Amino acid sequence: MPDSKSSIHFFNPDTMGKPLAAYSNVARVRASEFLFIAGQIGTDADGKAPPDFEAQCALVFDNIGAALRSQGAGFANIISFTSYLVHSQDIPKFARYRAREFPRLFPGGYPPNTLLIIDRLVREDLLVEVAAVAAL
Amino acid sequence: MPDSKSSIHFFNPDTMGKPLAAYSNVARVRASEFLFIAGQIGTDADGKAPPDFEAQCALVFDNIGAALRSQGAGFANIISFTSYLVHSQDIPKFARYRAREFPRLFPGGYPPNTLLIIDRLVREDLLVEVAAVAAL
Amino acid sequence: MPDSKSSIHFFNPDTMGKPLAAYSNVARVRASEFLFIAGQIGTDADGKAPPDFEAQCALVFDNIGAALRSQGAGFANIISFTSYLVHSQDIPKFARYRAREFPRLFPGGYPPNTLLIIDRLVREDLLVEVAAVAAL
Questions:
Q1: How far apart are CA A132 and CA A68, in angstroms?
Q2: Are C112 and A132 in contact (CB under 8 A)?
Q3: Is residue A40 within 8 Å of A64, Cβ to Cβ?
Q4: How far apart are the first and last CA of chain A?
Q5: To 10 degrees, what angle do helices C53-69 and C91-105 make?
Q6: Which one of B36, B79, B118, B121 makes the best mutation probe of the A interface by having the most chain A beta carbons within 10 Å?
Q7: According to a count of CB atoms within 10 Å of the terminal CB, is the N or C end of chain B lower?
Q8: Cα of A85 to nearest chain B Cα, Å
């Protein structure tokens, strides 16, 4: 959770198109301390990635949660996501995953996200990677 | 426009290669308040994307402008762009678009940009997406 | 090097998977001044890119170093990298390059990195591009 020195607000101005999924168009952030989190992948503690897209999603957000908790922070501190998928067929699965899980993870509003379909991630078995910035 | 508490300066050091288009190599920013803007796409108020690349560019920057204005800011507050194109054939069109429009949008200098050609955006009809960070 | 007003710390929490290469999972940064550096490519002063991947890597990090030095900073100020490769065959070469060079460039620890394989960069002869954020 943001400490008393930072403030994070999410906006979806009427003058912009509606977000296509569980994200906000704008985050406004007042903070002097930030976390930059390397792109997280869907691997477990042994480095293994399940073949299922949704199972990888769960591990990605578990890993981001662990990064946040390691610094005394939580999902409410996230100010920006960039999400990379390898297969365009996974776009609706990713939207559904977030529609289901994000209301619980982000009760105060959804951070901005940029969704990109790219060629490949660092390992061929990886289907999704999410990089994040947080403010403390 | 940046308020009196922030300062934004753009640099193209002689020790680096010249920018290949309308961007600067370095932004130096002193600020305590930031906007993170989700990647903006070339859709109109009804969510429709024109088939023409340049028309999508105009809508992308209109949307970014709307995001900035919603927070009392403007293009002078932009400190970083990341631009994603789907077709490499659009690279020269994107450079021409910016060469024509950016002198008006950015009279004080061009923010850094990273240009990437990727597989696909969230919808198959989208040709360009631009994510931005701004300082207030 | 960070000035006395900023602090930068890198973390690899035990609760997360081990980094797959020379990066950290989390950077924690207290700062009021930042550098946003446009994606740097492997070109020399004449804009020429050597055909060799590793030679392009060396030029990319030379260019990032020049950007940092132009503002009185150094590699110790880097808080985030995003690295884009065009060919997945270059992933092990990029890991080896960093394993060899980063201990010298980053004696205080490795900044977070997100590695992505994309279709193409701004010019067809470019094999690698790295965008960076630094704190002063």
A1: 10
A2: no
A3: yes
A4: 8
A5: 40
A6: B36
A7: N
A8: 10
Sheet holding B78-85, edge to edge: A7-11, A26-30, B33-41, B128-135, B78-85, B113-117
Return the closest-CA partner of residue B66 out of B49, B45, B80, B46.
Answer: B45
CA nearest to C84, candidates C114, C54, C122 = C114
pLDDT tens per residue across span C71-126: 999 999 999 999 999 999 999 999 999 999 999 999 999 999 999 999 999 999 99
B58-63: long-range contacts (C-beta < 8 A, 24 or more apart)? B60/B128, B60/B129, B60/B130, B61/B101, B61/B105, B61/B130, B63/A16, B63/A17
Strand ranges inside chain A, DSSP E: 7-11, 26-30, 33-41, 78-85, 113-117, 128-135
Which chain C positions have a beta carbon within 8 Å of B13's beta carbon? 66-67, 70
Strand partners, B30: B7, C33
Instruction: Please name the residues in contact with C96: beta carbons below 8 A apart, sequence gap of 6 or more.
Output: none
Classify the complex by whether its ipTM is higher than 0.90, answering yes or no. yes
Radius of gyration of chain C (CA): 15
- The tokens of B41 are what? 């796409």
